[in-house]
Design the sequence.
């Protein structure tokens, strides 16, 4: 007790000494209420309430008296009405049953009566309550009409086993958090945000995320690469012809993608992009006059592969690649690109592959398709050069 | 098909594509371009609406809307409603808008931010032929004077609420090594660089808009009292902003409050609802350089006065009675 009285005196004197500095130290309105519901795996939870009691449930003088009280028991007596107001006015409903709040501990910030009276120098009290959620699937936190707190009231809910917390803002008009799922998959009627889903997915299998990013750079974002692949496809429906071309193209673009990502080669997009368009025109026009895979076409396709790799690197440059898993991420990105390419070719086979034995295939299918591809390539070339 | 026919057919395909593109852009909204090269110009008001002698008699709009340029809006909460007079930002990209911060007042009756933003999105959509515009509701940092009207947006269709916890913010922007990382953020073709700037508050971010060259510094650097809860973090953040400005051209630094007068080193009293002698909100690189120099000079908690801002370095304002 003696030590406590001594400490109290020190706090009080220090508070007075610090008064001139304490007043202007935070001029932003920051005495809003904050609540944090921390769920545990065993179905229990702690509700922490951070509130400017001296500006809401108590008078500044009463709060100051509580802060100066001799020991925890006396302090609790001073806080009794405020605690009762909170346990009555805070409703935690777990699966349609209201849970009891039991005061666990508390902490009072108090520099001086003047500071407590001034909402611009918030003197916050932190009270923690035990809440038995009984492993509920969903929880709703709300403030009853009779409970007035400094608004708004930010609620954070931490769900056991889930990385991301849930935030809700309660105001004088909107006093309920709505249902918050406390176990994954619980139906609350509130769909999780795309960012939450993506983040959860990424935390489980980061490498797969990069495969997906690579895939997206072909489907749907890599329209020019798709058209180039179709250009390769319409030369011949012979599987070996396509395999050789795609292999050369893949090896080449993997090489330049890696080199460009490591900064070993750098070509401005203003040069790469028109050349990619030109490569599309080339393969399509060549389709019109070639019936089999010439060796020089393989070389040209390889050169074009190098170009397209630079294009992928440019696209990858817009995405942040984590430094600690750089090589793995790059490899997975490339794998995603290959999967995207294979998907494009598989779709092409599905659509026109069954016509391969048709005698008019070249005239009625391959040539019109190649003309169209060349026309699209010319459209891109003009746009990329002129605009 | 001979060579001449082939060439003709290819040309017809190309011309057809240009015709279709032209027709589509004439009928609907064409794709907006936000080139990172160069600098999209914009204008600030000569003076912002700055409150009034009598808050009761104030008849200014609850939210001042200033169009910086075609796709950038700066909003300010009426100081008569809340003395913070906080600024908020609405950036448009193709089919998506980003609202940064939601002011200091929750009540839609007093502060109808949702209606103002909805009206802006509608009118912008009509102007640029857009009908389905997604809204991202984000925050510069997690202080209540910047998220009070957040609730007005929770039931808005086609809206992404980033969230009001540190973890939700980090997940949305994609931070894995906050605050040092630079995140490339694509707002419908409009490119931003996002980086961490803790010090005033532990979750704060800064945004650099490559199209306008505006560097948004939130509450960590503005013309006013810079309240720092963590000096080391703030000093590192200021240097991080300087490094960002070394790599990207900066037209103006824009932010969240005005608390200074035009008299060097003199601020308005806390809680002022009338600031007739406000300086501009936007700041210059020389001011940022001054803050960088301050990081070398300041080593102790206290209040430090500069011409355009005051540093409140870890000034103790409360401590606990907890034994």
Sequence:
């Amino acid at each position: 007790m003696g030590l406590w009285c001594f400490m109290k005196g020190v706090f009080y004197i220090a508070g007075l000494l610090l008064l001139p500095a304490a007043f202007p130290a935070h001029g932003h309105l920051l005495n809003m209420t904050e609540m944090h519901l921390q769920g545990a795996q065993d179905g229990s939870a702690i509700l922490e309430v951070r509130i400017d009691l001296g500006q809401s449930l108590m008078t500044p003088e009463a709060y100051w008296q509580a802060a100066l009280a001799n020991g925890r028991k006396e302090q609790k007596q001073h806080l009794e009405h405020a605690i009762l107001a909170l346990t009555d006015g805070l409703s935690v409903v777990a699966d349609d049953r209201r849970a009891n709040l039991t005061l666990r501990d508390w902490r009072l910030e108090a520099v001086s009566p003047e500071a407590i009276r001034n909402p611009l120098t918030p003197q916050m009290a932190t009270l923690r309550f035990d809440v038995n959620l009984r492993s509920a699937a969903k929880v709703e936190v709300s403030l009853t009409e009779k409970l007035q707190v400094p608004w708004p009231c930010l609620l954070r809910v931490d769900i056991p086993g889930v990385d991301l917390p849930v935030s809700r803002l309660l105001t004088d008009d909107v006093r309920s958090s709505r249902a918050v799922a406390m176990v994954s998959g619980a139906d609350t009627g509130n769909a999780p945000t795309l960012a939450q889903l993506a983040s959860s997915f990424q935390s489980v299998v980061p490498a797969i995320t990069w495969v997906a990013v690579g895939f997206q750079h072909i489907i749907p974002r890599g329209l020019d690469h798709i058209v180039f692949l179709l250009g390769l496809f319409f030369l011949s429906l012979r599987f070996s012809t396509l395999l050789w071309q795609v292999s050369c193209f893949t090896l080449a673009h993997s090489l330049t993608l890696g080199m460009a990502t490591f900064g070993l080669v750098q070509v401005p997009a203003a040069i790469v992009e028109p050349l990619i368009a030109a490569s599309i025109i080339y393969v399509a026009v060549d389709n019109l006059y070639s019936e089999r895979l010439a060796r020089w076409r393989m070389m040209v396709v390889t050169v074009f592969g190098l170009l397209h790799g630079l294009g992928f690197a440019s696209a990858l440059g817009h995405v942040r690649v984590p430094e600690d898993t750089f090589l793995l991420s790059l490899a997975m990105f490339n794998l995603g690109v290959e999967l995207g390419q294979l998907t494009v070719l598989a779709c092409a086979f599905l659509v026109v592959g069954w016509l391969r034995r048709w005698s008019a295939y070249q005239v009625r299918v391959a040539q019109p398709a190649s003309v169209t591809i060349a026309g699209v390539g010319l459209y891109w070339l003009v746009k990329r050069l002129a605009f | 098909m001979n060579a001449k026919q082939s060439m003709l057919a290819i040309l017809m395909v190309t011309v057809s594509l240009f015709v279709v593109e032209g027709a589509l852009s004439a009928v609907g909204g064409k794709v907006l371009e936000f080139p990172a090269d160069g600098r999209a110009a914009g204008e600030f008001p000569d003076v912002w609406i700055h409150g009034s002698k009598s808050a009761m008699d104030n008849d200014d709009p609850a939210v001042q809307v200033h169009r910086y340029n075609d796709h950038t809006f700066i909003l300010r909460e009426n100081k008569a409603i809340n003395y913070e007079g906080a600024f908020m930002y609405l950036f448009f990209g193709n089919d998506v808008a980003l609202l940064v911060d939601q002011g200091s007042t929750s009540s839609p009756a007093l502060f109808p931010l949702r209606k103002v933003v909805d009206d802006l999105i509608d009118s912008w959509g009509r102007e640029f032929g857009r009908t389905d515009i997604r809204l991202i509701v984000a925050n510069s940092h997690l202080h209540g004077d910047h998220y009070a009207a957040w609730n007005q947006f929770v039931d808005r269709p086609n809206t992404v609420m980033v969230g009001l916890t540190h973890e939700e913010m980090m997940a949305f922007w994609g931070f894995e090594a906050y605050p040092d990382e630079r995140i490339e953020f694509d707002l419908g073709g409009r490119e931003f660089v996002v980086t961490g700037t803790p010090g005033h508050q532990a979750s704060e971010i800064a945004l650099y808009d490559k199209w306008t060259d505006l560097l948004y510094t939130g509450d960590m650097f503005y013309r006013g009292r810079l309240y720092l809860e963590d000096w080391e973090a703030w000093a590192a953040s200021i240097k991080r902003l300087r490094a960002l400005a070394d790599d990207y051209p900066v037209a103006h630094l824009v932010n969240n409050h005005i608390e200074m007068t035009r008299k060097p080193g003199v601020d308005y009293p806390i809680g002022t609802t009338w600031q007739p002698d406000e300086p501009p909100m936007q700041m210059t690189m020389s001011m940022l350089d001054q803050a960088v120099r301050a990081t070398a000079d300041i080593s102790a908690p206290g209040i430090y006065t500069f011409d355009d801002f005051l540093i409140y370095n870890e000034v103790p304002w409360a401590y606990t009675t907890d034994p």
